[in-house]
Amino acid sequence: MSRQLLRNPSTLQRAATAVVTSGLPHLEHSSGRICQLQQQCKLPSSVAIRRWKSLLHNNNSAQKPATAATATTASTTATTATATRRCSQAEALNARGSHSPFNAPVRNMSTASNEKVLSMGNINANYKAMEYAVRGPIVIRAGEIEKELLKGVQKPFDRVIRANIGDCHAMGQKPLTYLRQLMALTMEPRLLNSPEYPDDIKKRACDLLAACAGGSMGSYTDSAGLEFVRRQVAAFIEKRDNGVPADYQNIYLTGGASPGIKSILALLNCPIDGVPPGIMVPIPQYPLYSATITELGMCRVDYFLDEDRCWGLDRKELQRAYEESKKKCSPRVLVVINPGNPTGQVLTRENIVEIIKFAYENKLVILADEVYQANVYDKNSKFYSFKQVMNEMGGPHRQQELVSFMSVSKGYLGECGIRGGYMEVLNLCPEVKAVLTKSITAQLCSTTAGQVAISALVNPPTPGEPSYGLYEKEKSEVLNALNERAELVYKTLSSFEGYTVNPVQGAMYVFPKIEIPPKAVEAAKAKNLLPDVFYAFELLETTGICIVPGSGFGQLPGTYHFRSTILPQTNVLKEMMEKFRVFHAEFMKKYK
């Protein structure tokens, strides 16, 4: 009824006039209230209308749910009093001949009728339990500080340096001209007539457009991605692996590596003999895995990397974790991240052979996260794909079930926001693979922008083509700069008191171990924080440097670490390292 009144100006005018001209004799005659009414009677009609609208709006608004501590009796009493008051107001208005919004029977305005359908008590418990440290509380606080700085709040620093996430372009890396030109031409084909674009990129754009329905990037593709691009991916893999055959029908284009990883884990989410499936993950690990495992209600099985051997992987540790896990789950998957995130190690070929043997003997599917395969800096290290090694091993190991992942977000492209990736699925049962394809079909397809980016990754300019010189120059600049920063971070942090740092062999991160003094541990406990979280918060509030505590990735009990990227541009990274040095010296002095 009150909504009708709001929509009817003439009726609202009469109601407001009634309020202005009446003394409302039904109200209590306290001196304060009478004084208030006298002031109200002097109000112009327009002001009364505004107040009347406000009253009606408030009546229509959903009231906040009462807290659990509110007694039922108090709620009932308040409701009854409100209803009585409204009836009295209605009677006063009716006595003046005005239309009242309270003519209808008084409704029970109890909080129960206004409760939200969704509450923390009736949503998926797994969603509440999952955590993603890379964008956790410290990162949220960093965002708040950035807003405070914009408002002029004084800090001991003038900006936040975000070293928490591998977002290359956000940290100043420039996009490669070749990829951006290819995307421009495919998204706006009229640019094909422009002389500003090299002929080799125009040809690639025309080939991609010809593969699209209607010749447009705005159309859906096959659920697994454009066949044309999938064939390009297969050719890229075959060349990378020294001629090991690759079938495009085993390639699925995805929106970055993450959706592919999640789709495979979801496929394997089936209890075995009444116990949940177990997923073996390296510790430290990338939080995507722990978050997805929790989300799906699966069981995480931790195996520890050997920090004293440059984060190497030990077969005995794998076996220990596997045997212990069988008490609570059925282990089905072995996750390997190579090069490592957050640890920056590059697995040796011998390590990979041992991992494949272990997985085969224990009937585990290998998920090989190889998105950093182009990021190898250590001159004594080399990237080997799991596919290549298991094929070179020969015999039954060639039949090992393996899913590997790649992305345009890392490497030298660093196109995180475009969301392009692929996965290669090997040796799966045909029926199982058909089910996987069906599940992906329900998602329609990955973005065509991401598919173009993957095409650029796997089919770059070749010697003799117009774009080759600039492409090689820009690619080399990116990788050389990352190499330089990896060395800078390693040498600087290694000089800090209480730090133990492994060389950054690959990827985009450093994961040093730090000794936190007992006094600082007690200070952290007093704030109900883990010691490494306390250290990270202190660093952020003092210097503006945002890192991720090691507890977000997992670490050996009794040790403390943090992850920092090496992505800030060199001049910014030098500034960051100097601020870090000063902070750590003061921290140790304060808490030692």
Question: How does this structure look, described?
Answer:
The protein has 592 residues and is of the alpha/beta class. The chain has 2 domains: 129-160 and 472-591, Aspartate Aminotransferase, domain 1; 177-458, 3-Layer(aba) Sandwich (Aspartate Aminotransferase, domain 2). Helix content is 46%, strand content 10%. It has helices spanning 2-7, 9-21, 31-41, 45-60, 72-95, 125-129, 137-150, 177-187, 199-211, 227-240, 257-267, 287-295, 315-325, 349-361, 386-393, 430-441, 448-458, 468-494, 518-526, 531-543, 570-591, and strands spanning 161-162, 251-254, 277-283, 299-304, 330-337, 365-369, 402-407, 421-426, 499-500, 509-510, 513-514, 545-546, 548-549, 562-565. The strands form 4 sheets. The chain has a 7-stranded mixed beta sheet with strand order 2-8-7-6-5-3-4, with helices on both faces. Strands 10-14-13 form a 3-stranded antiparallel beta sheet. Strand 6 (365-369), helix 15 (386-393) and strand 7 (402-407) form a beta-alpha-beta unit. The longest helix is centred in the last third of the chain and has 27 residues, at 468-494. The protein starts with a helix and ends with a helix.
Largest sheet: 7 strands, mixed
* Order of strands in the sheet with most strands: 2-8-7-6-5-3-4
Q: Structural class given helices, strands, pairing? A: alpha/beta
What is the tally of helical segments?
Answer: 21
Mean pLDDT level: 82
Sum up the overall morphology in one term: globular
Radius of gyration: 32 Å
Distance between the termini: 70 Å
CATH superfamily placement of the largest domain: Type I PLP-dependent aspartate aminotransferase-like (Major domain)
Count up the domains: 2
Estimated helix fraction: 40-55%
Total strand segments: 14
CATH first level of the largest domain: Alpha Beta
| CATH topological fold name of the largest domain | Aspartate Aminotransferase, domain 2
Strand content: 5-15%
Q: What is the level-2 CATH architecture name of the largest domain? A: 3-Layer(aba) Sandwich
Which regions are unreliable across 5 or more consecutive residues at pLDDT < 50?
Answer: 1-7, 15-49, 55-107
